[in-house]
What does this fold into?
Amino acid sequence: MIWTALGTFPEPLNESDTRAKLLDPAIHSCGWTEDLIKREETAGAIEMVEGRPRRRSRGRIDYTLRVKVNTGTQPVAMAIIEAKAENLPPNHGLEQAKLYSACRRLNVPFVFSSNGHQFVEFDRFTGLTSSPLAMQEFPSPSDLRARYEFHIDLNQNSHPTTLTNMEKALYKRGVPR
It folds into this structure.
């Protein structure tokens, strides 16, 4: 408890409690089930940079979100979330998460950072980062799958001039901005 002249206030949740008490319930309410969530995955100790192996700093990804592509197959990593204590800004872990997302073992297109109340997203397809959004706006597995398929189709069919209008329709909630 924090004691002030106005009374007592609970201490802000640390990162671990933010994950358990805020993020887990929030992503579950957006449709993410336990079989699609992997917690505290190692980012990888060695990475190839310009054809040469390079040691990465140790680190664990707080959440790897996976999407089922076909019935009977293992889910595919689609996004990561870097969690931070609730008193930090929601973008506090975004740069760290971007580094994790680019490791060759994961190579996920959607990167999130959250303090449990809000999140920001970096979309590797567009290079855009969203403004902070409430956790109720967090994308569902089907939202991320649709966006992924949209961008893959776009890249294969090379229609860059239609990207802006199509993205506006697809990202009706404003992610990414």
